[in-house]
Each structure stands twice: as C-alpha cells, then as structure tokens.
Amino acid sequence: MVTSTYHVKGMTCGHCVSAVSSELSALPGVSDVQVELASGQVSVTSADALDPAAVRAAVDEAGYELVDA
C-alpha cells in the first residue's frame, strides 16, 4: 500500500470534501481517502503509486485545484 499526500485548493465545506473524496476514490487501486479541510491536505492510500495526471484530472473533475508541491 502507498499513501500519498496532496494539497487541494478551494475546498471550504463538507460538500467539497465529499466531491474530492468521491472522485479520488474512483481511481483504480484507491482504498482510502482522508481530507483535512482546514489545511487542504488530502491523503490517498492506494495499492500502487497513482499517476499524477489521473490525480489532477480527478481533482479537476470535482471542481478544485491540485496545488503542485
């Protein structure tokens, strides 16, 4: 299992958390998504390392912005 942490910009409420969690959970191999709303940190646990482009696309689809580290 691999856990990766990302910073997502624009989340302000529970709906935001739900939208981002739902999109990221749909990625192949993802088993867990934890969102810290106050900091914008999102931890994703998956079977293998995720494709950064797929993560960015999922966050974009949810309507938010993935901030580059």
Please describe what this structure looks like.
This protein is an alpha+beta fold and 69 residues long. Helices cover 33% and strands 35% of the residues. Strands 2-3-1-4 form a four-stranded antiparallel β-sheet. The termini are far apart.
Looking at this protein, list some descriptive labels.
69 residues; alpha+beta; 4 strands; 33% helix; 35% strand
Backbone structural class:
alpha+beta
What strand line-up does the widest sheet have? 2-3-1-4
| SSE topology string | EHEEHE
Please tally the β strands and state the result. 4
Q: What percentage of amino acids are in beta strands?
A: 25-35%
Helix content percent band: 25-40%
- Termini gap: 21 Å
**Which value, in Å, is the CA radius of gyration?**
11 Å
Q: What's the main sheet like?
A: 4 strands, antiparallel
Poorly predicted ranges: none
The backbone outline, from C-alpha atoms, is globular
How do the strands and helices of this protein lay out in sequence?
Elements (H helix, E strand, L loop, with lengths): L1 E8 L4 H12 L4 E7 L4 E6 L5 H11 L2 E3 L2
Antiparallel strand pairs: 1-3, 1-4, 2-3
Helix pairs in contact: 1-2
Task: Write a brief caption for the model.
This protein is of the alpha+beta class and 69 residues long. The protein is 33% helix and 35% strand. It has helices spanning 14-25, 52-62, and strands at 2-9, 30-36, 41-46, 65-67.
